[in-house]
Each structure stands twice: as C-alpha cells, then as structure tokens.
Amino acid sequence: MAVIFGTMHVVKKAGLESPEYVNIIRGAYGVVTVLLLGFTYYLKNTITRKNDTTALEYDDPSPSSQGDRIVTTNVKYDLGEVAKLQKSTLMTVAIVVFMHFKFGYVQPLILQTLLPALNTYKNQLFQIYVLGKPATDSLKRPWVPENPLAALTGASNSNSNSNGNGNSNSEGTRAAADANDNSNNGSASASDSASESEPSSTAKNKNKSKGKGKQETRKDK
Fold first, then answer.
1. Taking a C-beta distance cutoff of 8 angstroms, is the pair 25, 113 a contact?
2. Which of 30, 153, 159, 161 is the most buried (most CB within 10 A)?
3. How many other C-beta atoms are found inside a 10 Å radius of the C-beta of residue 107?
4. In a domain, 135, yes or no
5. Does residue 176 carry a pLDDT above 90?
6. Which parts of the sequence are annotated with region: Disordered (predicted)?
7. pLDDT average, residue stretch 191-205
8. Cα separation of the two ends of the chain
C-alpha cells in the first residue's frame, strides 16, 4: 500500500498524467506486460525441464473444500501456480486497458508498469527457479497468498480487545466504588438510627422511674 500511495504522489507531483506523456506510458506498459508474460512461459519451460516429481500432499485450501486432501507432485503444483500467474496477468491487462481507453485513466497504466517488477521479485517461483533458493521456510510448498489486511485486522482486534478490557475494568472499579459508598451510607444510617434510639430509650426509662415514684408515694399515703 505504501508503494502505491508513494507512486501516485510522485506521478501527480511530476505531472506524468498530462497528455504529452500518455504514449510513452502506454509503450512502457506494453513492454512490461510482454516481459511478464514471457517470464511466465520461461518459468513453464524451466519447471517442465527440471521435472521435480517429489510427492506433495496438503489440505485443500479452497473455501468449498470439505477437508479434502490433495496429493500431487512439485512439478504439477508449480505448473498450476504458473497458470494462475498467467491468468491473473491477462485479467489485469484487460481491466487496465478497459479503464484507460474507456474512461481515460492513466494512473492504472503507471502502477501496472512499476508494480510487476516488485511482485515478480517476491514471487516464490522466481525465488526458486531464477534465484536458485531452496524451497524451505517461506518458500516451502504449498504457498499461502499474502493478505494485505491481516495486520490491520490484527491491530483493530487488539485495539478492540484492549478497549473492552479497559471498559470492563473501569466498570468494575465504578461498581466497587458504588458498593463502598453504599456500605458507608449504610453504616452512617445505622449509627444515626442508633444515636436516635438512645435518647428515646432514655426518655422511656425516665418515664418508667417517674411512674414508679408516683406509685410509691400513693402507697405511703
């Protein structure tokens, strides 16, 4: 994403969207597309020539899979990945050409002229068959497509969890404070009622003593 936004900023600042550069951009895009398709055919021939028949077994990653197990070989798997790369390249060409000639957009041409070089370098087939790296660690088959939103999703999930924990902690603190206030109020009201009951009991005792005194005086008479 940073590469895309950086490229668009440079394009706007340099004024490459002006009509005088359109034919140059078209030619550059056409050359890059031909080179990319030629690279896929080179990969196909190289994979077929090496013919790595090492067994490969993995779970079917398609959403419609019912836990099926795929048994194949490295050469068949790699040829399938080349076919996917060719298909995605042709679909991208169709979309970019349509947007350019139908709506006059120049930015997609520029992006698809620059991005394929970066994507090709990061491609596992390029790493193995061109750079000669072993198919281990991140290059170990099967290859899982990268999800550019995973980090963001992970960041948003962590933020939501932290916010939820913070809210629950604050609510727990507030509940504890309210409970303490209620207990304090209960203690205060109890002490007040006790203090109020003491004078009343004292007055009752005085009245009782006065009544007894009057009764004794009457008896003496």
1. yes
2. 30
3. 18
4. yes
5. no
6. 150-221
7. 46
8. 114
Number of domains making up the chain: 2
Cβ–Cβ < 8 Å for 95, 109? no
The pLDDT assigned to 49 comes to 96
Measured from the Cβ of residue 142, the count of other Cβ atoms closer than 10 Å reads: 15
Q: Are residues 19 and 111 in the same domain?
A: yes
* Number of Cβ atoms within 10 Å of the Cβ of 126: 16
Highest mean pLDDT among 14-18, 43-47, 149-153, 156-160: 43-47
Judge contact between 128 and 46, C-beta under 8 A.
no
What is the C-alpha to C-alpha distance for residues 161 and 179, in angstroms, rounded to an integer? 27
Q: How far is CA 26 from CA 9, 12, 31, 177, 216, in A?
A: 20, 17, 9, 70, 128
Query: Which positions ≥6 away from 37 have C-beta within 8 Å?
Result: 86, 89, 90
| pTM confidence score | 0.63
Place of tokens 């002490």: 191
3-class secondary-structure state, position 57: strand
Average of per-residue pLDDT across 42-62 = 94
| Type of residue numbered 43 | L
Whether 114 is in a domain gets the answer yes
Tokens of 81: 């990945």
Strand (E) or helix (H) holding 74: helix 74-103
What is the spatial distance between Cα 122 and Cα 127, in angstroms, rounded to a whole number?
7
Measured CA to CA, the distance from residue 134 to residue 139 in angstroms comes to 7
**19 has pLDDT over 90:** no
